[in-house]
Specification:
Elements: H1 2-10, H2 54-57, H3 76-85, H4 87-112, H5 116-149, H6 154-182, H7 184-202, H8 208-222, H9 225-234, H10 239-249, H11 251-267, E1 275-277, E2 281-283, H12 285-292, H13 295-304, H14 311-316, H15 320-337, H16 359-372, H17 375-391, H18 398-435, E3 439-442, E4 445-447, E5 450-451, E6 455-461, E7 464-466, E8 469-481, E9 484-486, E10 489-496, E11 499-501, E12 504-506, E13 509-511, E14 520-521, E15 524-526, E16 529-531, H19 548-560, H20 562-576, H21 578-593, H22 602-629, H23 636-659, H24 667-684
Parallel strand pairs: 3-6, 4-7, 5-8, 6-8, 7-9, 8-10, 8-11, 9-12, 10-13, 11-14, 12-15, 13-16
Antiparallel strand pairs: 1-2
Subunit structure: Interacts with SYT1/synaptotagmin-1 in a calcium-dependent manner. Binds the adapter protein complex AP-2.
Subcellular location: Cytoplasmic vesicle, Secretory vesicle, Synaptic vesicle membrane; Presynapse
Membrane topology: Multi-pass membrane protein
């Protein structure tokens, strides 16, 4: 292959070129007849030490060759000055080469066609995107069970709910930048592997801190999936297919939410699906759910091992032979599936540009940094990533980057804030309805009575209980105030949101109960004894206004509601353009926010949740597509990862702010969401339209 490769480069002027005047990447079959000739005259007589290397053939001397005065000497200052004068011209030439590569690559993709290969990659990358959708829902679904299993306080519950977003923020930033250095496929495999490993560990760890740590690292892993998946898939799609099929790919995020909701519905409420080893180790049904949620990620890893690296990444980094082989694989796979196995891939790659001459050393150093944990190599890799991020703010891309930052932030702030605020509002409405049915008892006197049934949603004030027995009893949302318990016996009592305030216990015995100290507020215990208190926190799925089934059902409906929006955006993305789709969907979402004022019932809030989700998904799809298309290949995943990290930061802020107004006012969240969406839709119109353009 090396001889043929040299023949093609030396004899460029002797063969006609299709689609290019100055010799490029797309060539006809007339070249094939000469591929079996002998070695090139330009390399005859050279020994191994004098062999022309790729960069030198392009007019780039070896760094150690000493040609001219580069090695030092009287003329070195003059040469250095000349080099500085040539920087501007070199940068202009590099941009011209990038544009030429983009045009030629588009021509190659047109010849490869769209078929079996792209659809296979679609489902493989869809699994990775599905794993990201699952990760968003996991903690929210297990929180009602985990908070009781781990005895979580309110601050700990809030941290557990937000930790996945912090992890995904770090992961998007890290893996997005790394994918532009070592490749899309390899970076995606690494981040998915980290997610699957720590998701597996999180289902078994017992302590709150270790569970929090595992979910954090799981989020760091999956955080890279969105920027890498969209960039990876876009580089296999021709211009006329890109917008539509990237939008179809977004459906897998919805499928991840549906999968998580269905699995939670089927697994978590079954408390019997558990085992324990003494009181130290307990494995409840919600841990089974966490384990099952890792399956899409594991499946994505297995399937991704059979897929190749992005050929565009190889071509951008001087790996022309590898890129040609992958493009030939795409072509042959599609042609065989369409019934044309005889069609020959009439494209060959000649060495013309190499945007990163030190690519092989970068890959080698990256592997060493990851596998050997060399601090110096890690520092070098960090420096390379930092330079790539800074390049996104270069004069050429600064305006685009700042505009996209504003659009990503406003959309994420409103979307994630409202999607979390909706379920919280539904629970608040349920709680109000439940509390309206509370029964109140005052000045009652009860003597010699055995309570062996459930006491629920009652308030007892100024009561007197003498020689009463509370056996095998469940107390749910019970409050005893200013009451006296004299010579009472409590055995095997389980409580949920039950408190004794300003009560007095005289000569009473508590045996095998979960009546811990915090349930007695300003109480006096006289000659009373506690024996064999229950350990840990008790799971109770019969909680009316925090019913597990309702939580999963609401999220299932909200996720399913985005299906029509996904279909519409996919069908219209390449017809009306990205900007119209983005701005139009944002405006309609903004208007729909004002309907939230009329959501005064549980069913009304669920309907509004579905409406908002179905409308806003089109703007997300358009934003994903336009972000991919506005940056060149060497900055694509870096920019996408940075913007996606900003998205997660905005999500944390939106969730925290919107939740603080639950039960206080609707006006503030509605104004915040509508204002953010209005600002985002206005700024979106200032972005350049990318429909009909080749991928940079």
């Amino acid at each position: 292959m090396e001889d043929n490769y040299q023949n093609r480069t030396d004899d460029d002027d002797d063969y006609p070129v299709q689609g290019s005047q100055d010799g490029g990447y797309y060539r006809g079959d007339s070249q094939a007849a000469n591929e079996d000739e002998g070695g090139s005259d330009s390399t005859e007589g050279h020994d191994e030490d004098d062999e022309i290397y790729e960069g030198e053939y392009q007019g780039i001397p070896r760094a150690d060759s000493g040609k001219g005065s580069l090695a030092g000497g009287p003329g070195s200052v003059k040469v250095d000055a000349q080099q500085f004068r040539d920087i501007g011209a070199s940068e202009a030439e590099r941009r011209k080469d990038q544009e030429e590569l983009a045009q030629q690559y588009e021509t190659i993709l047109q010849e490869c066609g769209h078929g079996k290969f792209q659809w296979t990659l679609y489902f493989v990358l869809g699994l990775a995107l599905m794993a990201d959708g699952v990760e968003i829902f996991v903690v929210g679904f297990v929180l009602p069970s985990a908070e009781k299993d781990m005895c979580l306080s309110e601050p700990n519950k809030s941290m557990l709910g937000l930790i996945v977003y912090f992890g995904m923020m770090v992961g998007a930033f890290l893996w997005g930048a790394l994918a532009d250095r070592i490749g899309r496929r390899q970076s995606l495999l690494i981040c998915l592997s980290i997610n699957s490993v720590f998701s597996f560990f999180s289902s078994f760890v017992q302590g709150y801190s270790t569970f929090l740590f595992c979910r954090l690292l799981s989020g760091v892993g999956i955080g890279g999936s969105i920027p890498i998946v969209f960039s990876y898939y876009s580089e296999f799609l021709a211009q006329e297919k890109r917008g539509e099929h990237l939008s179809w790919l977004c459906m897998f995020w919805m499928m991840g939410g549906i999968y998580a909701s269905a699995m939670a519905w089927a697994i978590i409420p079954h408390y019997g699906w558990s085992f324990q080893m003494g009181s130290a180790y307990q494995f409840h049904s919600w841990r089974v759910f966490v384990l099952v949620c890792a399956f899409p990620c594991v499946a994505a890893i297995a399937a991704l091992n059979s897929m190749p690296e992005s050929p565009r990444f190889y071509l951008e980094n001087g790996k022309h032979d590898e890129g040609w082989m992958i493009l030939k694989q795409v072509h042959d796979t599609n042609m065989r599936a369409k019934g044309y196995p005889e069609r020959v891939f009439s494209v060959s790659i000649c060495v013309k540009i190499s945007l990163y001459q030190n690519y092989k050393q970068v890959i080698l150093d990256t592997h060493k940094a990851i596998c050997v944990c060399d601090p110096k190599l890690f520092l070098d890799l960090t420096t390379q990533i930092r330079k790539n991020i800074i390049a996104c703010f270069s004069p050429e891309y600064k305006r685009t980057t700042f505009m996209l930052m504003a659009v990503w932030f406003t959309m994420s702030f409103s979307y994630y804030g409202l999607t979390v605020w909706f379920p919280d509002m539904i629970k608040y409405i349920q709680k109000q309805e439940y509390e309206s049915r509370t029964k109140t008892f005052t000045n009652e006197r009860v003597e010699h009575v055995t309570f062996n049934f459930t006491l629920e949603n009652q308030v007892h004030r100024q009561g007197h209980y003498f020689n009463d027995k509370f056996l095998n009893l469940k107390m749910k949302y019970m409050v005893f105030e200013d009451s006296v318990f004299e010579e009472c016996y409590f055995e095997d009592v389980t409580t949920t949101h039950t408190f004794f305030r300003n009560c007095t216990f005289i000569a009473s015995l508590f045996y095998n109960t979960d009546l811990f100290k915090y349930r007695f507020v300003n109480c006096k215990l006289v000659n009373s004894t506690f024996l064999h208190n229950k350990e840990g926190c008790m799971l109770d799925f019969s909680d009316d206004f925090n019913n597990a089934y309702m939580i999963y059902f609401v999220n299932f409906l909200g996720t399913l509601a985005v299906l029509p929006g996904n279909i519409v955006s996919a069908l219209l993305m390449d017809k009306i353009g990205r900007l119209r789709m983005l701005a139009g969907s944002s405006v309609i979402s903004c208007i729909s926010c004002f309907f939230l004022m009329f959501g005064n019932s549980e069913s009304g809030m669920i309907a509004l949740l579905c409406l908002f989700g179905g409308i806003s998904i089109a703007s997300w799809n358009a934003l994903d597509v336009i972000t991919v298309e506005l940056y060149p290949s060497d900055k694509r995943t870096t920019a996408f990862g940075f913007l996606n990290a900003l998205c997660k930061l905005a999500a944390v802020l939106g969730i925290s702010i919107f939740q603080s107004f639950v039960g206080i006012t609707k006006a503030v969240p509605i104004i915040f969401a509508a204002g953010a969406l209005a600002a985002g839709s206005f700024l979106a119109t200032k972005l350049p339209e990318t429909r009909g353009q080749v991928l940079q």
